[in-house]
């Protein structure tokens, strides 16, 4: 797919106004970027990095404005654990215009169009300034590098020299654009920048954020500015294809989560069990140092549908109030493998397969289906095992009443180093202060419930 990614910060990353250095940086970061973009523009004017005035320049500026506006209008807001990022064709147009008409003109046009597009999306002046300045400074620096290193009027991809320079400039553009947003988000969210970079880029997919198609903007624009309007058509088409792909994955995840809820409604005792397990797992995982931001997001999705394999378990076994026979127990225990095999066919859940398959493994090797032991069990599955057991113990079941949270905590601690990873148990104990457990405390602790009444 040829669509380019243009990342920006959303209002949900906004910094609370705490009287400290990070809060101050969060409030003024956009202004710093804006000043840097303006400085790049002034430097470009001083170096005369812009074409001479002519009648055709007016038409070129108008076409460039249309391209930039169109590129910013076609936006997808993608959810991440830290907030959202925008994916658009804006970076292709921004870099192309900076190379074609020079960074001096590009800074002004990009600041205006990116600000208006961001404000239209978020209705937040500070966020819009930061997003516009990030887009402008990345294009300005890349444009300055191009005009400095390539002879005047030379076009990209027309020689080995211009091809190599263009690739370097395109990578530089993406690194600066991506980096300024990552730094701003890290300041706002007070999170390690490396983890944010992994989450925002998808780790392995950063290559797709590089606007290589920008080379065609000066190539086509130098021949006929109006022809660039037709160049926009495949950009829009690729963007729409990307949006359709994301919607397909999103709808797949939503459908499977809803299907899991429906399956759990077969048994009123386990209704919305997976939803609660997902919430508990996320809270515990936040205290586990070995999990990256991306792995925590994967765990959340896996926990949400971890019992989907129970669709293959007959009701007379699933809802049985008495003790299961050996054959019935084997059937029940097959649900984790069945669920993993089912979602393995789905691209949206390919990274969740092993977590679902092994969420019933035990630290001492006595679990199922593979009898994995200790650290051979995927870390996310170890976290899910604690969250799963916690919800199972604190909800009513046909064969017993719900335990109080205090009793469940004692049981989890007692089974540390046998059923559960001791480090995950320690993380669980730390996570109990998280507000997500407040409702559980009130529901299972008679003393707390009585005090609330």
Strand and helix map with partners:
Elements: H1 21-46, H2 55-73, E1 75-80, E2 83-88, H3 90-101, H4 103-122, H5 125-149, H6 160-189, H7 193-201, H8 216-221, H9 227-264, H10 273-285, H11 293-304, H12 315-318, H13 326-333, H14 335-343, H15 353-357, H16 379-393, H17 405-414, H18 422-431, H19 438-444, H20 446-452
Antiparallel strand pairs: 1-2
CATH hierarchy class name of the largest domain: Mainly Alpha
Biggest sheet, strands in spatial order? Answer: 1-2
The CATH topology of the largest domain is what? Arp2/3 complex 21 kDa subunit ARPC3
Percent strand: under 5%
Helix content: 55-70%
Strands, count: 2
Mean pLDDT: 83
Task: Note the overall shape.
Answer: elongated
Q: Which stretches are low in confidence, meaning pLDDT under 50 for 5 or more residues running?
A: 1-5, 12-19, 77-85, 201-205, 448-453
Taking Cα atoms only, what radius of gyration do you get, to the nearest Å?
27 Å
Q: Could you tell me how far the N terminus lies from the C terminus, measured between alpha carbons in angstroms? A: 58 Å
In total, the number of domains comes to 2
| Main sheet record | 2 strands, antiparallel
Q: What's the CATH architecture name of the largest domain?
A: Orthogonal Bundle
Structural class: mainly alpha
What's the order of the H and E elements? HHEEHHHHHHHHHHHHHHHHHH
How many helices in DSSP terms?
Answer: 20
Multimeric state of these chains? single chain
């Amino acid at each position: 797919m040829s669509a380019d990614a243009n990342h920006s910060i959303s209002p949900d990353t906004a910094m609370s106004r705490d009287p400290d250095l990070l809060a101050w940086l969060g409030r003024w970061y956009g202004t710093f970027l804006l000043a840097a973009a303006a400085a790049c523009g002034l430097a470009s004017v001083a170096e005369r990095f812009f074409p001479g005035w002519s009648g055709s320049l007016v038409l070129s500026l108008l076409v460039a404005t249309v391209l930039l506006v169109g590129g910013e209008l076609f936006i997808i807001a993608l959810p991440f654990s830290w907030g959202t990022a925008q994916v658009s064709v804006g970076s292709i147009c921004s870099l192309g215009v900076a190379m074609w008409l020079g960074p001096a003109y590009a800074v002004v046009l990009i600041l205006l169009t990116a600000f208006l597009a961001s404000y239209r999306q978020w209705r937040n002046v500070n966020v819009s300034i930061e997003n516009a300045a990030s887009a402008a400074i990345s294009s300005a620096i890349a444009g300055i590098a191009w005009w400095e290193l390539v002879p005047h009027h030379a076009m990209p991809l027309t020689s080995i020299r211009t091809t190599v320079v263009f690739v370097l400039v395109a990578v530089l553009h993406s690194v600066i654009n991506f980096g300024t947003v990552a730094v701003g988000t890290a300041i706002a969210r007070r999170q390690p920048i490396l983890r944010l970079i992994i989450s925002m880029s998808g780790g392995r997919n950063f290559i797709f954020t590089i606007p290589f198609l920008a080379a065609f903007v000066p190539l086509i624009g130098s021949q006929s500015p109006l022809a660039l309007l037709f160049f926009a058509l495949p950009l829009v088409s690729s963007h729409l294809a990307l949006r359709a792909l994301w919607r397909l994955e999103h709808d797949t995840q939503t459908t499977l989560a809803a299907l899991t809820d429906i399956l759990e409604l077969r048994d009123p005792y386990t209704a919305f069990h997976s939803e609660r397990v997902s919430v508990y797992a996320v809270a515990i995982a936040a205290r586990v140092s070995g999990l990256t931001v991306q792995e925590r997001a994967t765990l959340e999705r896996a926990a949400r549908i971890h019992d989907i394999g129970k669709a293959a378990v007959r009701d007379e076994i699933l809802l049985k109030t008495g003790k299961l026979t050996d054959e019935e127990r084997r059937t029940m225990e097959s649900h984790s493998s069945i669920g993993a095999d089912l979602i393995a066919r789905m691209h949206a859940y390919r990274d969740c397969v092993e977590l679902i398959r092994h969420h019933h493994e035990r630290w001492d090797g006595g679990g199922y289906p593979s009898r994995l032991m200790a650290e051979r069990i995927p870390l996310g599955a170890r976290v899910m095992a604690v969250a799963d057991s916690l919800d199972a113990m604190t909800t009513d079941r046909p064969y017993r009443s719900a335990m109080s949270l205090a009793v469940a905590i004692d049981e989890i601690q007692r089974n540390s180093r046998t059923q559960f990873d001791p480090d995950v148990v320690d993380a669980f104990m730390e996570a109990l202060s998280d507000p997500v457990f407040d409702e559980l405390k009130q529901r299972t602790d008679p003393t707390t419930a009585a005090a609330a009444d």
